[in-house]
């Protein structure tokens, strides 16, 4: 009997962003309502190259997609730092159980971070006719929130008001303090990185509307930046159920 057997029709070879995979049709169609289910049950067109089916997506993340399809369980390696990228891929392929599993994994990580480390949140809001850069016609307000004892460790020149009272207390409750300067969010980021902090999340939002109170109607832009920082290690603290982020 020769070695050149016809491949079994249920064995699927994939080229995802230049990374090659071999799996089964049953695995790819585990969730029929997903994009992969639609692609391989014949209801959605597919593309092929010399390596098999071609999908122009993140090949490094697709391995985790396949692992989830095989077991219906999100099992990520310790120290996995690409959860945002994986969430984008799970959303693209519309694998709803995996999207939910990633959301639950995020919640678990948040609890662990609050228990074993220190956290801060920095929110910068820019309002003006051009709010993208620090300019004379934009109003900038930056707020930092976190445990009093953690904020008290930051240099005084970041703050818009004295923080001596914070340094005189061991209060672990959360507080909010305004930061000083139009570019203080970026300066603080440089400082936190130099001190071993890690950014565990960053969001941006923008909205616009017309100023109806002034004599001349003008377009007003509001842009918000929200950074979440985590310092690994530290003393154990109980996970709070009333966290600011």
Automatic annotation (TrEMBL):
<protein>
    <recommendedName>
        <fullName>BTB domain-containing protein</fullName>
    </recommendedName>
</protein>
<dbReference type="Pfam" id="PF02214">
    <property type="entry name" value="BTB_2"/>
</dbReference>
<dbReference type="InterPro" id="IPR003131">
    <property type="entry name" value="T1-type_BTB"/>
</dbReference>
<dbReference type="InterPro" id="IPR000210">
    <property type="entry name" value="BTB/POZ_dom"/>
</dbReference>
<feature type="domain" description="BTB">
    <location>
        <begin position="10"/>
        <end position="110"/>
    </location>
</feature>
<dbReference type="GO" id="GO:0051260">
    <property type="term" value="P:protein homooligomerization"/>
</dbReference>
<dbReference type="InterPro" id="IPR011333">
    <property type="entry name" value="SKP1/BTB/POZ_sf"/>
</dbReference>
């Amino acid at each position: 009997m020769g070695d050149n057997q016809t491949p079994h029709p249920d064995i699927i070879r994939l080229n995802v962003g230049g990374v090659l995979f071999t799996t089964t049709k049953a695995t790819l169609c585990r969730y029929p309502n997903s994009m992969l289910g639609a692609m391989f049950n014949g209801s959605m067109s597919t593309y092929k190259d010399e390596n098999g089916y071609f999908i122009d997506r993140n090949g490094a993340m697709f391995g985790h997609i396949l692992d989830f399809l095989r077991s219906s369980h999100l099992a990520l390696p310790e120290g996995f730092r690409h959860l945002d990228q994986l969430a984008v891929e799970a959303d693209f392929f519309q694998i709803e159980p995996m999207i939910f599993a990633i959301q639950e994994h995020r919640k678990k990580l948040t609890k662990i971070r609050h228990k074993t480390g220190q956290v801060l949140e920095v929110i910068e809001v820019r309002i003006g006719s051009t709010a993208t850069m620090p300019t004379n016609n934009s109003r900038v307000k930056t707020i930092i929130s976190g445990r009093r004892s953690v904020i008290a460790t930051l240099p005084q020149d970041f703050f818009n008001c004295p923080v001596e009272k914070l340094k005189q207390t061991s209060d672990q409750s959360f507080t909010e303090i305004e930061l000083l300067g139009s570019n203080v969010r970026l300066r603080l980021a440089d400082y936190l990185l130099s001190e071993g902090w890690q950014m565990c999340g960053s969001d941006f939002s923008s909205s616009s509307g017309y100023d109806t109170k002034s004599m001349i109607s003008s377009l007003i832009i509001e842009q918000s930046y929200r950074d979440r920082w985590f310092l690994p290690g530290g003393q154990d603290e109980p996970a709070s159920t009333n966290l600011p982020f």
